[in-house]
Design goal:
The protein is mainly β. The protein has 3 domains: about 5-85, Immunoglobulins (Immunoglobulin-like, Sandwich); about 85-160, Immunoglobulin-like, CATH 2.60.40.10; about 165-220, no CATH class. A 4-stranded mixed beta sheet has the order 2-7-6-4, with no helix packed on it. The chain has no helices and 20 strands. Helices cover about 0% and strands about 50% of the residues. A hairpin with a 5-residue loop joins β16 and β17 (about 180-185). It is rod-shaped and about 105 Å long.
């Protein structure tokens, strides 16, 4: 990566060669580096007296503090080195309902761009949280671009099955015809119920009727 001055948060990518860190321009003498992070014990990165810059390995995450003097007083500045991440969770929704895809990142450095593919059904393909109407199972991918990184993730949108009715009673009417009563599921997405009857072949059913979900909750 390019050299950076202390006093900032550095967002690294998931893979990089190394980071070169240089002191602020107002440091003129007595520069002392202190590093605290995920370096193994074999590395003794507790100080580089009077060293103008340091290189950190590609796996480093943590803080780097630069002590020194401007010739008048004592100066100290600390930077945080953070690995940029991109996270998104799969989501499901009922047919016709809206869901929101949420791409989350710890990157706060600005100048960030999102790009979603495919574009079908999405309200906006350039924001981290587009909205879509669920009509079928779909897989989307989002790519996030920052000044130092390009990260991509996939997300699966699944169609959630409508709840089935719960049969409450099977009886007969005054004409001795079979009657089936059921409890209507709490859903505005159900237009009608199909009634099936098992044939003389076990496990094979034929449709014998259709019932409007808003008119009645029984079939005879």
């Amino acid at each position: 990566m390019d050299s950076v001055n202390t006093g900032d948060t550095i967002y690294t990518c998931e893979s990089f060669d190394s980071i070169k860190i240089v002191p602020m321009s107002d440091y003129v003498a007595g520069v002392w580096w202190m590093v605290g992070g995920n370096l193994p014990p074999a590395y003794d990165y507790l100080g580089w007296p009077d060293t103008l810059n340091i290189y950190l390995p590609d796996y480093f995450i943590g803080q780097v503090t630069c002590d020194g003097t401007d010739g008048v007083g004592y100066l100290q500045k600390t930077i945080e080195i953070v690995t940029t991440n991109l996270q998104i969770q799969n989501i499901s929704g009922s047919c016709g309902n809206q869901v929101q895809l949420n791409a989350n990142t710890n990157y706060l450095g600005g100048n960030i761009q999102f790009n979603w593919m495919p574009v079908d059904g999405l309200s906006d393909t350039t924001v981290p949280n587009p909205v879509l109407n669920v009509t079928k199972d779909m897989e989307y991918s989002v790519t996030m671009n920052t000044p130092n990184c390009t990260l991509s993730k996939d997300v699966l949108v699944t169609l959630q099955p409508a709840p089935g009715p719960s049969i409450c009673l099977v009886s007969v009417d005054i004409a001795n015809k079979n009657m089936i009563y059921w409890e209507n599921p709490e859903s505005v997405l159900i237009d009608s119920f199909f009634i099936y009857k098992e044939t003389n072949i076990t496990g094979i059913y034929e449709k014998i009727g259709i019932v409007d979900s808003e008119k009645k909750l029984f079939y005879r």
